[in-house]
């Protein structure tokens, strides 16, 4: 075991941690978790790379290659699920690399990292689908206790019930079951497995997208609307979106002084007394935002229209290559960024915090919407898999 590299690692990591902490502490939004997590990842990759190089091998280049694939794909276009797949692929490859590094270097730190990853995998495998079902029922109970019992708020409960039925069915279907009984269960398992992998990729990139750091040189910030209380006042959820935008507005004003205008985007629903944009404007005025810094887009009824109509307002201002961001709740900004791209609007999102208990339900809703957006692609992939599995099953029946 090399003691000197470990000593220098602890030294430069501690120094970096302290400098980052001091720097971010002075910011309006410290975001210590993001910066410290990024620094930890860089420090560990650097340590394992140097340690292996000292041993005369360079296999660390393999996981670095996969990280580079993710990084350049993300830099080129942030809002696509491919980036989630590439990042997860990097994690898997890096996990395999840790196994190799543990065996060849016998380093204490690398062995500790491997042990931590191993425990996480074992816990996930142990809890498995039963643990997931228990969590979903618990979360559904919390959501029903604190929110309205609409279909949109019952997604975790519906998923828990569906998985419970699946577990019961598979428990009674044994390997000795007739092929015409086992085949549908196999196809159902395949579908759930595929959807799980797609969801993991979606969730990964949705989480990574939370850490956008737009430069404080923006010209416009679009605030996406939502339903109103009694048809005229912003809800706490919508207020958090506006507060997030106001925080960015004030931080930019302090740091660069670059002028920034709000675009309050939201039309009037059939049960609303005023357009959402008007209610949002009133809330912003009450928070001290000057009237002249607020533009209204009061015709949209969907996120895509939010982006499309807001782009028309931006184009009408006559600015060449206007710099634009948008604000919404954290679970929503990834899908909203996809709509921005479809509306030919070059804009990244910043996310307002959402109550933790509500996030599973919210991400499930976003995932369902993402599946609907790409339904033809997913149907084609599942169709091909169904045909292959069915053909193999029938072939085995014929041979037997």
Automatic annotation (TrEMBL):
Residues 219-364 form the DUF218 domain. Pfam families: DUF218 (PF02698). One of its GO terms (biological process) is Gram-negative-bacterium-type cell wall biogenesis. It comes from the Bacteria. Keywords: Membrane, Transmembrane, Transmembrane helix. The chain crosses the membrane at residues 6-21, 33-50, 56-73, 85-103, 109-138, 150-173, 179-209, 379-399. This is DUF218 domain-containing protein.
């Amino acid at each position: 075991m090399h003691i000197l590299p470990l000593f220098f690692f602890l030294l430069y990591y501690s120094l970096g941690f302290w400098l980052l902490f001091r720097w971010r502490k002075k910011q309006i939004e410290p975001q210590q978790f993001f910066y410290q997590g990024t620094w930890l990842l860089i420090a560990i990759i650097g340590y394992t790379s140097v340690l292996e190089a000292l041993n005369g091998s360079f296999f660390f280049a393999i996981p670095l290659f996969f990280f580079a694939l993710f990084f350049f794909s993300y830099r080129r276009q942030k809002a696509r699920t491919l980036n989630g797949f590439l990042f997860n692929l990097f994690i898997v490859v890096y996990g395999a690399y840790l196994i190799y590094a543990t065996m060849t270097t016998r380093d204490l730190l690398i062995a500790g990292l491997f042990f931590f990853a191993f425990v996480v995998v074992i816990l996930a495998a142990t809890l498995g689908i039963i643990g997931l079902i228990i969590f979903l029922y618990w979360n559904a109970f919390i959501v029903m206790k604190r929110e309205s019992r609409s279909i949109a708020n019952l997604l975790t409960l519906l998923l828990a019930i569906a998985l419970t039925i699946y577990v019961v069915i598979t428990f009674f279907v044994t390997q000795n079951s007739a092929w015409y009984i086992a085949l549908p269960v196999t196809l159902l398992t395949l579908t759930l497995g595929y959807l799980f992998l797609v969801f993991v990729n979606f969730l990964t990139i949705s989480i990574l997208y939370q850490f956008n750091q737009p430069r404080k040189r923006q010209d416009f910030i679009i605030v996406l609307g939502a339903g109103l209380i009694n048809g005229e006042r912003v809800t706490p959820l919508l207020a958090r979106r506006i507060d997030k935008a106001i925080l960015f507005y004030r931080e930019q004003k302090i740091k660069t002084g670059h002028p920034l205008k709000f675009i309050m985007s939201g039309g009037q629903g059939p049960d609303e007394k005023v357009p959402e944009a008007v209610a949002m404007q009133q809330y912003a005025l009450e928070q001290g935002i000057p009237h002249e810094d607020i533009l209204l887009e009061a015709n949209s009824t969907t996120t895509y229209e939010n982006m499309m109509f807001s782009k028309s307002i931006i184009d009408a201002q006559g600015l060449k290559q206007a710099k634009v961001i948008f604000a919404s709740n954290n679970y929503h900004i990834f899908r909203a960024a996809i709509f921005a791209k479809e509306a030919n609007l070059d804009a990244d999102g910043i996310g307002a915090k959402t109550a933790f208990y509500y996030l599973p339900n919210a991400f499930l809703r976003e995932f369902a919407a993402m599946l609907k957006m790409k339904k033809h692609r997913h149907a084609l992939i599942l169709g091909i898999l169904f045909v292959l599995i069915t053909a193999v099953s029938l072939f085995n029946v014929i041979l037997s």
